[in-house]
Amino acid sequence: MKRIVGSPGTWSGMVLRLSQCFFAAASSLAMCSAFGFSNYSAYFYMNLVLILQLLWSLYLACQDIFSLRNNRDLHAPDFLLFFVIIDWVMAILMFSAFCASASVTIFFMKDMNFCAEYRRLDCNQFTLSVTLAFFTWLLQAASSFSGFWLLVSFF
Amino acid sequence: MKRIVGSPGTWSGMVLRLSQCFFAAASSLAMCSAFGFSNYSAYFYMNLVLILQLLWSLYLACQDIFSLRNNRDLHAPDFLLFFVIIDWVMAILMFSAFCASASVTIFFMKDMNFCAEYRRLDCNQFTLSVTLAFFTWLLQAASSFSGFWLLVSFF
After folding, report:
1. Which of A21, A42, B56, B61 could form a disulfide with B103 if both were Cys (CB 3.0 to 4.6 A apart)?
2. Helix (H), strand (E), coil (C) string for chain B
3. For residue A151, what pLDDT band results from cuts at 50, 70 and 90?
């Protein structure tokens, strides 16, 4: 089994997946605690993607833990191809959700100055959630690249 | 010289680049003709990225035409690596700009219903511009993948 940092079935891979779970959960919690976030399509979409991300990362973290305990090899090409495709789709969804929410937050804070005018708008929570979503995306991109690199090294 | 569809120095590559120029220019024009677009960060950012995209695609279309007329090989690995890196950066910038603008347009049209309330807001122009930017991104992604595939085939 090749040892590429962050690939499935390695310690670094497991740490990456657990960090994704942590950041996705924290970002989703920050969003849910903001008043009326579901009125805005961009925030609703980001929350949905974050929950999907959390479930996917949790599933892969469990796979990694199982593989590390039982010394099972997760690097079969078919298995890996499936992982890498879903990983890339998740990374693209996460990036689009982050961009959409960031632009709406900038619109509230800078363009329209709604945050100062409407006190009920939880701009701090929105900003916190978007920042955490950015870190989730960075970690997801790292996992996707590492899986892709491993797949390329088979050919 | 390997003939991969859409790669530099081929007819299909040139058609892809010229289509990118056309869609980027059309999207930018649609945006500029909308009243007060530069008040919104997302639209301003998208317009900036569209102008960058137009310049980059125009430069590469000229390279393709020059290469086709003079039978020059554009597939030297160093030259290709430079192309592919900038192509990927442009594709990521274009995607982020499209997502940001689309989310602000959805916010205007669906979430807040501003388009029906404020007649001066050129929602049709914004929608047209965002749609054209989406096609620009699709074409840019096709070019990036084709260049990347060519680069991988060297190793």
Report:
1. A42
2. CCCCCCCCCCHHHHHHHHHHHHHHHHHHHHHHCCCCHHHCHHHHHHHHHHHHHHHHHHHHHHHHHHHHHHCCCCCCHHHHHHHHHHHHHHHHHHHHHHHHHHHHHHHHHHHCCHHHHCCCCCHHHHHHHHHHHHHHHHHHHHHHHHHHHHHHCCC
3. confident
**What are B's interface residues with A at a Cβ cutoff of 8 A?**
39-42, 95-96, 99-104, 106-107, 110-111, 152
Q: Mutate one of B41, B48, B96, B103 to test the A interface: name it (highest A CB count within 10 A).
A: B103
Domain parsing of chain A, residue ranges: 11-65+75-152
A19, A67 Cβ separation under 8 angstroms: no
- In residues, how long is chain B? 155
The whole-number average pLDDT for the span B37-60 is: 97
Render pLDDT for A73-95 as a digit per residue (tens, 0 to 9): 877 888 889 999 999 999 999 99
Using CA atoms, how far residue A38 sits from A1, A101, B134, B155, in Å, is: 45, 12, 25, 48
**Contact of B94 with B137, CB cutoff 8 Å:** yes
- B89, B125 Cβ separation under 8 angstroms: no
Please judge whether B99 and A104 are an interchain contact, meaning their C-beta atoms are less than 8 angstroms apart.
Answer: no
List pLDDT tens digits, range A101-136: 999 999 999 999 999 999 889 999 999 999 999 999
Question: The complex's ipTM?
Answer: 0.92
**Separation of alpha carbons B88 and B61, rounded Å:** 17
